[in-house]
Amino acid sequence: MTLHAGAAALGVSALLATSAAAYSALKLVGVAYLLYLGARMLLAAQRPTGDERRAPGKRAFAQGFVSNALNPKVALFFLTFVPQFLPDQGATLPTALALSATFAAIYVAWFGGLVTLVEIVGTALRRPSVQAWMERVTGGALVGFGLRLAAAGKP
Question: Using an 8 Å Cβ cutoff, are 8 and 96 in contact?
């Protein structure tokens, strides 16, 4: 989200709104990545082995970052969200960057709390049967989102 907020502040997201080719390209790459992640999770659910399956912190962060960066709807959200809060006159870049930083701070606080909550219930969530169930549900959802995104037209 921070990537898209910064891109909107710099005007890069406007390219996705005006260029059907750029939007379609980003959408197709996003579809492919969602299908890849979903298929991997569905396959991983077939052979649960415990904690070894958990993605290391850097890999999990990279997966989340790429998933978010390849989501054209997030870029379009920021394209419509940021401009309405920018001043009519003067430099808009500092305000846009401040809005992006504010969003990032809220995002980090929210997900920091969520991670803390998940860590508290982590013992139950680390059981192989629970992990396999979560992999199946999440993998199926990612495949479903990827297929829906592939079938959807430009908003």
Answer: yes
